[in-house]
Amino acid sequence: MQPLDKYLAELSAQNMLRSLREIESAQGPHVKIDGRDQLLLCSNNYLGLANHPALIEAACSATRDFGVGSGASRLVSGSMSLHHRLEEEIAAFKGSEAALLFNSGYAANNGIIQGLLGPEDRVFSDALNHASIIDGCRISGAKIEIYPHNDMARLEQMLNAASELRRGRWLIVTDGVFSMDGDIAPLKDLVALKERFDAWLMVDDAHGGGVLGRRGRGTAEYCGCLAQIDLQMGTFGKAFGSYGAYLAASRPVIDLLINRSRSFIFSTSLPPGVVAANRAALQLVDSDEGRARRERLQENQRRFAGTLQRAGLDLCGSTTQIVPVLTHEPEPTMSAAGQLLKRGICLSGIRPPTVARGACRLRATLMADHDPAEIQAAAETIISVLSELETQK
Ligand SMILES: Cc1ncc(COP(=O)(O)O)c(C=O)c1O
Question: Ligand 1 within 6 A of 104 CB?
Fold first, then answer.
């Protein structure tokens, strides 16, 4: 065994050691940790569907009828009717020609970018894109150009410069809602650029799907350009309350990925119970209940973010249910998260490498099921914990 103790001790000394927190109850607005009730402010179960009776019933019933496992990858014998029906329903939901399931958002971003691009191609990627996009770009072998976060003028310059020696396929890729800042990509501007420069536009809507847009179609619906996004990636593990991911795109793109995408080809397909839960989640998001849940989530977000903003805290430009509070350095960030846990509030302290050095933050995420009075009280507790830490400096 190579000695790892020194490395781990160094991480710990720098307040950078990560460890797992055991959650002893189901994902809801409250959870049990170390036997104590905590207000959960770091779950992606935005619409509260992870515990919804309709999803639980769909998962149980499909498991009884079709078993626990799918038995194989899609191209072998794991392409069950349930997978096909869900893909048709995703395509209808997103208004695309076709859709393809992946086993997770991480696998999707890896497999989509690797499947579409090769060394002769070029990808333009936002500086704050999710790690799975970064890894997908790397394994594709394409030339990678990182543009500063949401900086359309700089992206345009980079596209112009690359045009002089244009070869291969071009892909512009962005998160819809950025996972650490909670801000939104300027999709209409990106559409204009991808059309002008004849590139594909891919949007990772892990955090926008189900939540944004009047009908919950996500960031592209919110920005008014749903039909113009070539590659719409989304996940089922967040607002949809379940697990897995998808790409909605044209039929040729989906056919290419079935033939080339390694994370799609070389992995056992999603289990029947999960696929059935995803189908139930799509229906719910599309229903009046889905709309009511989106509205409750937005009200909680306005209340929580408004209170923090009025106290002068820096929320990193967030306009969504992801509400970061900038705390800069690891030490105050982790002290504040620890203090909050003692006061019954569980949220994440985010440090490098997830964010850049000096950009540590407390990151809160809201749910439709949170009680508005509790959300108000939580925002006030965060303000007082941060001001106590400030006076102790
Ligand atoms: C923007 C974004 N994309 C992709 C993923 C990965 O999705 P999954 O958890 O389904 O692997 C995440 C997960 O945190 C994410 O935030």
Answer: yes
- What pairing do the DSSP bridges indicate for beta strands 122-126 and 170-175? parallel
Closest of 359, 358, 337, 356 to residue 346, by C-alpha? 337
Per-residue pLDDT tens digits for 287-324: 999 999 999 999 999 999 999 999 999 999 999 999 99
| Residues ≥6 apart with Cβ < 8 Å to 82 | 62, 66, 272, 275, 276, 279
Distance 130 CA to ligand 1 centre (A): 7
Name the residue among 170, 155, 167, 163 with its Cα closest to residue 117.
170
43 lines ligand 1 (CB under 6 A): no
Does residue 353 have a cis bond before it (omega within 30 degrees)?
yes
**Is residue 179 in contact with ligand 1, taking CB distance under 6 Å?**
yes
CB proximity list for 321: less than 8 A, separation 6 or greater: 46, 182, 207, 211, 297, 298, 300, 301, 365, 366, 367
Weakest-pLDDT range from 17-21, 96-100, 380-384: 17-21
Which domains, and CATH codes, for the chain? 19-51+291-392 (3.90.1150.10), 53-285 (3.40.640.10)
pTM of the model: 0.96
Tokens of 8: 């781990």
The answer to whether 346 touches 384, Cβ cutoff 8 Å, is: no
Pocket test for ligand 1, best of 27, 106, 134, 240 (most atoms within 8 A of CB): 106
Percent of the chain with pLDDT over 70: 100
Other CB atoms within 10 Å distance of the CB of residue 252:
10
Hey, how many other C-beta atoms are within 10 angstroms of the C-beta on 349? 21
- C-alpha closest to that of 364 among 288, 289, 295, 303: 303
CB 179 within 8 A of CB 348: no
Say yes or no to pLDDT of 393 above 90. no
Q: By three-state DSSP, how is residue 314 classified?
A: coil
